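Q: My collaborator sent me two sequences in one message, no labels, and asked for predicted structures for both. Can we handle them in order? The first one she listed is below.
A: Yes, handling them in the order given. First sequence, followed by its structure tokens:
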Amino acid sequence: MKKIYFLSLVLSFTVCFAQTNLKKADALFKNYSYADASKAYEEILQNVKNPSAQTLKNAADSYYFISDSRNALKWYGKLYEAQGNNLTDIYYLRYIQSMKAVMDYDEANRITKEYLDKKGDKNEINKYLAQKKQTDSLSKSKSLYEIKDMDINTGKSDFGATFFQDKVVFTSARDTTKFSEKLYTWNNQPFLNLYVAERNAADGSLFNETVFLPNVMTKYHEATATFDSTGKTIYYSTNIVKNNKLVVDETKTNNFQIIKGSIVDNKLENPQKVFFNSDDYSVGHPSLSEDGQWLFFASDMPGGYGETDLYVVKIAADGTMSSPKNLGPKINTIGNDLFPFFSKDVLYFSSDGHYGLGDLDVYESKFLSDGSFSNPRNLGAPINSNKDDFAFIIDRTGHFGYMSSNREGGKGDDDIYSFTKGDPVCNQTISGMAIDHKSKLPLTDVVIMGYNSFSDVLGETKTNYEGKYALIVPCGKIVKMMAAKPNYSSDEKTVETTLENGGEIPNINFELSNYDDLVVKKKGVEKVDVKPIYFDYDKYDITPLAIEELAKVVFIMQKFPNIRIKIESHTDSRGKDIYNLKLSDNRAKSTRDYLISQNIDASRIESAIGYGESRLINKCKNGVKCTEEEHLLNRRSDFIIIQK
């Protein structure tokens, strides 16, 4: 029942032809008899080698409008082969949506990128990237929603459930009316009518369905109703009819209108057209806010962003309505934006113009304090699928509701599904970047881990090519953050998250040191890169200058926990050999004791030995005259890495 969603409705009677030719197929298409037109074009195109672009469009659209995505894709593909980048926006959209409808997501994404590159609109590219990232993220997490098909569905179209007191009103094409012999030539189904059903509060099941407000029914469409909180005022969609005849515009199209009325003793009284109805365009899918002060609806009126847009009017206490306001480009797209539902400052709606899972998807957008709406968020599976998913409503508890879909596995064209929604998990994002300690340049592929107080892993991610990361962790936790990269030191931070769901704690940054920047290598031996450790003359106490250099040893041993070292201390040749040997050994052991005092495990220091003047590294042995700088080279402590 796709085109009924889109509000561009034409009612006509089936035209039958003994033989099929292109003119007759075009007549069926122009007459909106898409079910018959698709068959006619299929027969013709078997024998036409070079069909025109318009014929390919009509053939593809005939299938698209009756939700036969596989065959629609075949002819949109032929059209794309013929026209390439000359495809218009709307045909790119239909081509891409048909791919998604048959689960060909990789090709759909490729064509989407091609289309966006052709447009060259950076804002639209960023929107695509953000929405794709969000849907990809949803696919990796457990959904809050569980859905269930309903026994009330039939082999025909059933959709658009809405709450009415303790019951549910819905739209259906089931054959239970006195007008059931009339068929809507679009898809050869009966016309739509409103039904009411009892609702089992325990499981949401619907039963005992009957025609709703029998005096409302006509031989055409009545669909998608909404009610005020008392259940005494109704707004609903219907064809524009005058004197029991359809009113058509210049293109022979009969449009939809919204009717407001009062419900008294199960009858509609005082029906009135809303002032923004027009014979020249459609308005429909009305939805009242809970307080009755706002009426949202869909329309293809001039001045919109796409095929159908969402609008809102404010309703004063005396019933006066403001002029319709378009909800703007955050909500509306070049495609179809429909089925609004507003609850607790959240607008739910369906769209095939945002970058979702395929065809109509359900989105949510928060109403902000400045009067605008937030960027729409896809609700993900199982609410959304590769088919049309729409008419989402949720009760005041936020835990139960209904939606409609023509997905595989249902009973008919469209089916009503009930759903339950679990309580959302409160998460926050910790973000920042990792850089090289020495160069201050960003580091890619740094592993960022988050742990709780029991060292359980809360989350893990990696930095991107810009050195940036974003880690999702639970609210209200003390999170130990650790950053690590092979051949680099690790870095740690402690962050306390708040209770704001969806909040972000930015600028938690890390500096990592490259192992190669912390050591020197000579003849296959690696040593910690430190300046000479200075001691006062004839002493082995650790001096402030020595502490500065030993901090480098502590740092590398803390950041590389597998490192083991041995300490070797040396003196110059001045003084007696035995004295120098004892002095250097005391200095080596004093150095070891200092490292242990800085919480370095003693087992990681294999030995601390003084060698006096026995291992000079230059000519300055006993009796050789040398400068102070030359003697300094021999007066050294080495921290030799024996394991890393």
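Q: And the one she listed second?
A: Here it is, processed independently of the first:
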Amino acid sequence: MPAGLFNVGQDLRRLAEISGILIAHGFGDLVRQLGLDKLVAGVGQALHRKEATVPHLLSAPERLRHALEELGPTFVKLGQILSTRADLLPPDYISELGRLRDKVRTLDWADLAVEVETELGVPLTELFDAIETQPLAAGSIAQVHRARLKTGEQVVLKIRRPGVVPVIEADLRLILRLAALAEAEVDGLARFRPVEIVTEFARSLRSELDLANECRNAERIAANFADDPFTRVPAVHWQWSRENMNVQDCVSGVPGSDLAAVRAAGLDLKLLARRGADAVLKMIFADRFYHADPHPGNVFYQPDGGIVFIDFGMVGQLTRQRRDELVDLLFGVVGKRADKVANILLRWAETDNGDSARLASEVEGFIDRVHGVPLGQFHLSAMIADLIAVMREHQLALPYDLTMLTKAFVSLEGMGRELDPDFDMVSAAQPFLQDLIWQRHAPHELARRAREGVEDGLALMTALPGDLHKLIAAAADGHLKLHIDLDDGEKYFDRLDRLMARLTMGIVIAALTIGSSIVMTVSGAEMAVGVSFFALLGFFGAVLGGIWLLWSIWRSG
């Protein structure tokens, strides 16, 4: 990768800092493999220092977690996303990265409010009757404070940290370039699509930076539960909400993270588990737009048994096709259709290179293990983990939207079992799956699919004559071109180019040596004046060329 790609001084300094932290935590080999030691000035010296700061007693996953924490909030959030990628990383990495938490200091109210107040043109204390300067919560992106409107309503202000956007944007720019570099240079990494993972991560993080977008997500989910009296979402106050601040109703009730308080309030824990599961499963299977992080900290329980969901910065969305594939997968497991399950996994991984027969055989073993477990002891999260382990063994990666979904499933089942140890996720999901199967085979749905199929067929037949005419015309004019993509072709052509350069240099050296030898054998009487000098010059050039050739071959390994 040309050094000109990193053409901003700030990016170079940050890249040097990233490389130094990775080296200090024992990842110097990775820095060398990516070529960052040659790209960033000053890092080469760091590579030769003793890596005394590395806590050698720690495991590689622990060192990675510490490195990400030291690199800052963008990398912490990247680690949190990677902790959901059990299809890419082994269990010890998943477990360790799952411990990543935003470790940020709280800002004083005056420092926090300065950016919003500059945009509004007035102090926030003039817009609200009262504001608690002590934060309720603080994260790497925003800080939350309780306030009271002039009308007396209790609200919460979620205010973005000043200056956080350019810092995160710079890190995202570097991470994307590093992902592209790793995909090109590290053998076997391309199949896991690191650039695609980072691109989706950047999109998700930018969505979190827009606090008004969180309000739009909240209102969309609230509209989907308009007819459900027990599933609630805080109302948004749009007159004060914007990209760097949102204002929502303050939630009353017992925090889901305080299970002792939930029990002390006399609430029916089994009922709460069932209602919470029904709400999230409806989001996933019926609405296809869901809270992607339904852990106890994002839930409040109210005295009437109602459930309030908060913090919609991270949401997931499923296409109709993806949802149908998920249903087919689950019913393939239930119906012991290993071949069907294997085909869906290969489709998700977007590869034609998988060994479908071997994969189907391993999936069949997985299904046999699942069917041997009594329903009361069945854990959906364990089933997902086993299935993802099969995918990882075959080097198959899940699409990003499904990794968000697996995270939601695991969080939901954990929250359900915390409330009710006998909570059965499969039984809770069964009515939704059955409804989807009935809907897919309902007369109106069959008619819709048939109509779409006829429309697509007619469109293809209508366009075919024109496409054939263009193809024949291009062939007749000599403009028809055949393009062939070779995996890692650019890298191999580069190696071939270097090989041909060395071969050419070898031929030139041999020609100089032979030519100079012939000239030197001619007697001085028959040789023009000064030709002997050129013969010596030829010998000298051959020696220099030979030294360069040997050094080049040795340097390349």
